[in-house]
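TEACHING EXERCISE
Course module: macromolecular assemblies
Task: Read the component lines below, then compare them to the predicted structure of the full complex.
Student: A.B.
Group: 4
Components provided:
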Amino acid sequence: MRIFNPSFGMAAAGPAKVTLQPVNWATDAIALISNSKPNARELLEGVRAMLGAHRPVDNIHFHAKNSASQPAPKELIEKVAKNYKAALLALGD
Amino acid sequence: MKDIAEQEVIDIGDMDVEAFNEYANEQGWSDGMPLFVPTEAKVAKFVDTVRGDNRPYPPVPPRQIVPTLQALAANAVMAGCKPEYFPVVTAALRGVLDPEYNLHGTLATTHSCAPMVMVSGPIRHELNINCGTNCFGQGRQANATIGRALGLMLLNVAGAKPGEMDRSTQGNPAKFTFCFGENEEENPWAPYHVQRGFAPTDSVVTVMSGEGPHNLNDHGSTTGDGLLTTFAGGMSNPGSNTIYGKGPMFVIIGPEHAATLKRDGFTIESIREELWKRSRVHLSRVSKENLVTYETTGHKPDGDWLSIGRDPKDIHITVAGGPGKHSAFIPSFGGTTVACTRIAR
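Instructor-supplied answer key:
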């Protein structure tokens, strides 16, 4: 007996490949991004404080999604891509 | 992508139904209840019913694969649908694929939301969809299997496997199936799909990522004003997602309550306005810690009150059910929309 596979599908065309650039964690600008749920900001504050023991933190900035339940808006993603060499995401829940 | 099943058609040999169900469980295809076998012949009958809808499907999140009609039909067969239900199921799928529905978020969340499927228009009676007594409950093949088919598609095509991509803390019985029809015949106002701009003769599927129905019992009130006090009290819930993840909600009014409201001069618009004003949550019912969270995420109170949506338009209203003094409140996930799709036939 032959059946149709209920989970079969065609691969969607993926986004253009991005070439990652090396990050200098001692000096480069870093975005700390919260998913806007409780404790995400606190977690990122801890990360920033720990980084502060080893490097300047004036170019390490906090960001957050507008809503915990929605994807990050395009503007935020573009802003982070334009201004930072690395991003750390905290998922509070 | 690594998790895409490679074979569209699988030869399973001489399995009987029980052996197929064991096999399907091993593949992760089941919602836990017995499945029908999606043979090539059965799937072909289902595909033949949707010739009026030739639009390709977009990639389905979170798994981001483009489903074939045959794979979708296989899920409807497994759910126990009749072939003629399939256009309703595919219309529901198109609804949840509306980007504003936020399918990825609604499937991956810890919230208990399930896809509510409401059917409007002539197809309700053609398919024997229950719009009256016990419309949210058991007893009709169409209600039971249309909702189940959509759930199986979200499991098998979208990849919402419980405990993996589906992270719901407690889940919800509505995740098995949640499909009902509007009771247009006892609705003293416009049916929901007509409120949304469709013709009365159109058959339309409406989806919202919602919780199960919360009962609104009012046997005592004899006026529309009294009923709205009860409705608003039931909607005023500090534990609802929409108190901070602002979004839509449904009030499904039972026919007897609807008749009382109509008699007292209420319209859909005036009911919506009254419920908006009366369903706010007083700050005395919100914890101090939650209030800090809401304020830091931009959901500030208005004086001493928190609203349960963005504005009155977030309250969607229609009529369903049978005799009795009950109505229902269905809050949503929050970051979602109410999507309507005309059934192509």
